[in-house]
Design goal:
The protein is built from five helices and six strands. It is an alpha/beta fold. The protein has a six-stranded mixed sheet, with helices on both faces. A hairpin with a 3-residue loop joins strand 2 and strand 3. The longest helix has 71 residues.
């Protein structure tokens, strides 16, 4: 019995096949575009959510800074009202008021700051201008109207035994900082070489001004 020969498709059938393939290609392209649009929308929603979270965090930091600034201003008013016009005390109070937000901005978990922290042992005594503390971090700040190299050298010696003099305020990480209104350039270089954060007082505020690449030291 002879096998029936399969006939070749007619031109009309070929065109139907081509049109069907074209429709499938277009449909696939539309599906791909729809998926891409969905991905873009999801990514945009994610970015909006993350930005909203960052905005809330920034707003919280702004509120915290405003409250600290308010407390600082109240302290300045009290000092002025008491008739204490000593510039050094004003400097210390200003640095104290800015210490917590400044060091939180650089990633240190400090929560409270204390001024003129004293310690007495037999006939010796120590005083630290400003100490900021948190659960894991403590920052000891030496404040000078004019910072000189010898001030940095003395502070380097004094901060080394801070844990012994004030174990109640010592934390797993103890950092050092120097604050000033003006400074000898050599003193700033010495402070950074010692691993101290450098705080410059500007008008009624203060800012950390360490050079790029500075590496703080844990004492």
């Amino acid at each position: 019995m002879s096998r029936r020969r399969r006939s070749d498709p007619t031109p009309a059938q070929v065109w139907r096949i081509v049109r069907a393939l074209a429709r499938e290609v277009r449909a696939g392209h539309r599906r791909a575009l729809a998926r891409e649009a969905a991905y873009r929308q999801a990514d945009e929603e994610r970015r909006k959510t993350e930005q909203a979270a960052r905005d809330r965090e920034q707003a919280a930091r702004d509120r915290e800074r405003a409250e600290l600034d308010r407390q600082w201003q109240a302290r300045m008013n009290k000092i002025a009202g008491d008739g204490d016009n000593r510039f050094g005390e004003l400097m210390e109070a200003l640095v104290e008021g800015r210490t917590v937000p400044l060091f939180r901005e650089v990633g240190l978990g400090v929560e409270r700051a204390y001024r003129r922290v004293k310690s007495i042992s037999l006939h010796e005594w120590r005083e630290y201008d400003v100490v900021a503390v948190g659960p894991e971090d403590a920052v000891v700040v030496e404040v000078k109207t004019t910072l000189r190299p010898r001030d940095v050298a003395k502070f380097t010696d004094r901060i080394r035994d801070f844990r012994e003099w004030r174990p109640d305020l010592a934390r797993p990480r103890v950092w050092g900082a120097v604050g000033f209104l003006s400074a000898n350039p050599e003193a700033v270089r010495a402070a950074e070489a010692a691993g101290f954060y450098v705080i410059r007082v500007v008008s009624t505020t203060a800012e950390i001004v360490n050079s790029e690449g500075f590496e703080p030291r844990v004492f």
